[in-house]
Design brief:
The protein is 3% helix and 53% strand. It is mainly beta. It is built from two helices and 25 strands. The model has no long low-confidence stretch (mean pLDDT 93).
Length: 374
C-alpha cells in the first residue's frame, strides 16, 4: 500500500509559521566510492526557517555571546556523511534568494534545488570559517550532488498532519514520510572523491518535518535493507519507519509516543497511537553505552506485535545541529546516524496466541536519539 500525499510534502511556512516556523526535507542513502568500491552513507537536507523575518543576508540565532537573542531566518542546505569521518556541512542563503515553484515541491536557493523527482546542490565550508563562526553550526568539507529520486513507499501518519490540523498548527512538530523507501540514482562528490548512487542498493529514505519547535525525546529509526532469518532471503519489498518522542498538541505534551509503520512484503503493519481503534500500545527505551546508542521498541495493535532492537556505533554518528525558530538551541546531543543495524521479530495475533511471521535482520538504518539540555 502506497499512501502518498504530495500535499504534505509541499512548503508549509505560511500564516503564523512564516514568523515562527521551520520546514525541512530530509534525504539519506548509501553510495559507493567509484575508485575503491567502498560503501558510504550520506544525507542531504533542505531547511527553511522564519521566512517572514528574512533579510538580504542570513540571520543567525547562535551568535557567540548573544545566543538566542535573535530569531534565525535563512535557507540552510545541510549535507554530510556518516562513518569514521561523520560530519555535517552547511551552506546558508538569505530568504531573498528562496525561490518556490508554482506547484508542488520545487525549492531553489543558489545552486541548490529540490523537487519530488531530483535534487542538485553544493556545500563548501572551510575549517577556519567553521571555527570562526560557531553560529554556522557546521563542520568543514566540500560536497556536491546530482541525483534523481524515485519514492517507492510512503508513510502517511494519519489525521495528525491533515489540512485541518495543519491550519490550526495543532502540533509543534509535524511529520510526513513521502519516501520512507526511496531509490536514488546519480553521483556524489565529497572532498574530491566521486561516489555512485545505485538505485537498488541506495537503501534510501526521504521525509519532512515542519512546525514551531522540536520534540524531546527525539526518536527515529528506519531501514529498507532487510533480510529474513527464516528463509535467508532479502526482503526487497519491505521497509519500516519509527518516529516520535513526546509530541505536543496545542502545547499539551502527549508524553512518550511513537508512530510506527512496517511494510512487510506488501502487507502493512501500522502501530499508530493516533488511530485509537487499532488499540496500539508501545513502549520504548533509548540508551547510551560506551560504544553504542541502543533503541528498544515493543509495540502491538489488535492484529500484530513487533519487537525491534537497533544499535549504532557512536564513533560513526554525529550530533546534528538545529536552532529553533525562537533562536534557542535546545538539542546539543542529538545523536544522528545512518549505519544502524538490528533485528525485528514480527508476530500475528491469533486466538490461541501470537504466531511468528518473520525474524528479520536489518542494516543501513537511519537513526536518531536525543533529549533537550537539562
Amino acid at each position: 500500500m502506497n499512501r502518498s500525499d504530495l500535499s504534505r510534502n509541499e512548503y508549509m511556512l505560511r500564516g503564523p509559521l512564516a514568523k515562527k516556523g521551520y520546514d525541512w526535507w530530509w534525504h539519506s542513502f548509501t553510495a559507493w566510492n567509484k575508485e575503491t568500491g567502498k560503501e558510504k552513507a550520506f544525507f542531504i537536507e533542505y531547511f527553511v526557517i522564519n521566512p517572514a523575518l528574512g533579510r538580504d543576508k542570513p540571520v543567525f540565532g547562535q551568535i557567540p555571546g548573544a545566543e538566542g537573542k535573535s530569531k534565525p531566518a535563512y535557507v540552510m542546505v545541510k549535507a554530510g556523511t556518516w562513518g569514521e569521518d561523520a560530519r555535517q556541512i552547511h551552506a546558508f542563503y538569505p530568504i531573498s534568494e528562496l525561490k518556490l515553484g508554482v506547484r508542488g515541491l520545487d525549492i531553489t536557493a543558489g545552486c541548490c534545488r529540490l523537487t519530488e523527482k531530483s535534487m542538485q546542490g553544493y556545500v563548501d565550508m572551510e575549517e577556519k570559517e567553521a571555527k570562526k563562526h560557531p553560529e554556522y553550526m557546521s563542520d568543514a568539507g566540500v560536497m556536491s550532488w546530482d541525483l534523481s529520486i524515485e519514492k517507492k513507499t510512503a508513510f502517511h501518519v494519519g489525521y495528525g498532519a491533515s489540512k485541518f490540523f495543519r491550519k490550526l498548527n495543532a502540533f509543534e512538530m509535524f511529520w510526513h514520510a513521502e519516501g520512507m523507501k526511496t531509490e536514488y540514482k546519480g553521483s556524489i562528490w565529497l572532498d574530491g572523491e566521486e561516489y555512485e548512487v545505485i538505485p537498488e542498493k541506495s537503501y534510501g529514505y526521504a521525509d519532512k518535518n515542519w512546525g514551531s519547535n522540536f520534540t524531546s525525546p527525539w526518536v527515529w529509526i528506519s531501514s529498507c535493507n532487510l533480510t529474513s532469518q527464516l528463509t535467508g532471503k532479502k526482503l526487497n519489498n519491505s521497509v519500516f519507519d519509527v518516529g516520535g518522542g513526546c509530541p505536543k498538541v496545542f502545547k499539551v505534551p502527549l508524553k512518550r509516543k511513537l508512530l510506527i509503520d512496517f511494510n512487510y512484503e506488501g502487507t502493512d503493519y501500522e502501530f499508530n497511537f493516533s488511530k485509537f481503534w487499532t488499540k496500539t500500545k508501545t513502549t520504548f527505551t533509548c540508551n547510551e553505552t560506551e560504544e553504542y546508542i541502543v533503541w528498544k521498541v515493543k509495540t502491538e495493535n489488535k492484529d500484530a506485535i513487533m519487537h525491534l532492537i537497533c544499535k549504532c556505533k557512536k564513533s560513526e554518528m554525529l550530533w546534528i545541529n538545529y536552532e529553533a525558530p525562537d533562536g534557542r538551541k535546545r538539542h546539543n546531543r542529538l545523536w544522528n546516524g545512518g549505519t544502524g543495524s538490528g533485528k525485528i521479530r514480527l508476530y500475528k495475533k491469533m486466538e490461541k496466541g501470537a504466531v511468528l511471521i518473520d525474524d528479520i535482520r536489518f542494516s543501513n538504518a537511519g537513526c536518531e536519539y536525543g533529549t533537550y539540555d537539562k
